[in-house]
Amino acid sequence: MSIVINGDGSISGISVGGLPDGTVDAGTLATNSVDSAELVDGSIDTAHIGTDQITSAILPAGSILQVVDYDGGSGSQVSTSSSTFAATGEEIVITPSSTSSKILVIAVWNAQVLVNGDNQAEGEFKLVGTTNGDLMLHRYQNYDYGGSGLAQTSTQNMTVLDTPSSTSEQTYSIHYRLIDGDYLRMNNANKKANMIAIEFKG
């Protein structure tokens, strides 16, 4: 078939591969004319991906978007004899990148309770979030059947998966109160609390 220039400005009669090599450049291609159907499988390699072009928008659900770590600062000691919850001052702050994100919060700390006259001591810790409030309650118990006045120490932890449904800054803090005993102490012997907040794509 011969090449024909039509009256509407189109050209017909050109077979596949009929144009000379190197004649079609970027300026010849119409905007948005090349889509995934024209790309060869595996043709896009690392060198052809622009810097910072892999964003959270194209990552699959469950991908880790960010990790924030808190090491407890100086490990200052806090203590309470109150039956009302109070903040320990240990907290971690993270700002979700999407309202569909889930935040996994892991907290580990050292706690001590002083056993009183009934040979037992008990306290509670809870993890509190900005959006959803009380997220988890953790009860801490110690017993000394040999006599009163003994301070029992152990490592405590809480792990919570929160869905704040917000892109506002989220603060997760540890609160505590004494139920039974003379006092409940956190970070005795200058030990530090550790907290990690991990954002997962929803």
Characterization of the model:
The protein is mainly β. The chain has a domain at 64-200: Sandwich (Jelly Rolls). The protein has no helices and 12 strands. A hairpin with a 5-residue loop joins β1 (4-5) and β2 (11-12). The protein is rod-shaped and about 105 Å long.
Topology:
Layout: E1 4-5, E2 11-12, E3 64-70, E4 78-80, E5 86-94, E6 102-114, E7 120-129, E8 133-143, E9 151-162, E10 170-180, E11 183-186, E12 194-200
Antiparallel strand pairs: 1-2, 3-12, 4-11, 5-10, 6-9, 6-11, 6-12, 7-8, 7-10
Unreliable runs: none
The name CATH uses for the topology of the domain at 64-200 is: Jelly Rolls
What is the overall number of helices? 0
Oligomer: single chain
Strand tally, please?
Answer: 12
Provide a concise account of the structure shown.
This protein is mostly beta strands. The chain is built from no helices and twelve strands. It has a domain at 64-200: Jelly Rolls (Sandwich).
What keywords describe this structure?
about 200 residues, mainly beta, Jelly Rolls, 6-stranded antiparallel beta sheet, 4-stranded antiparallel beta sheet
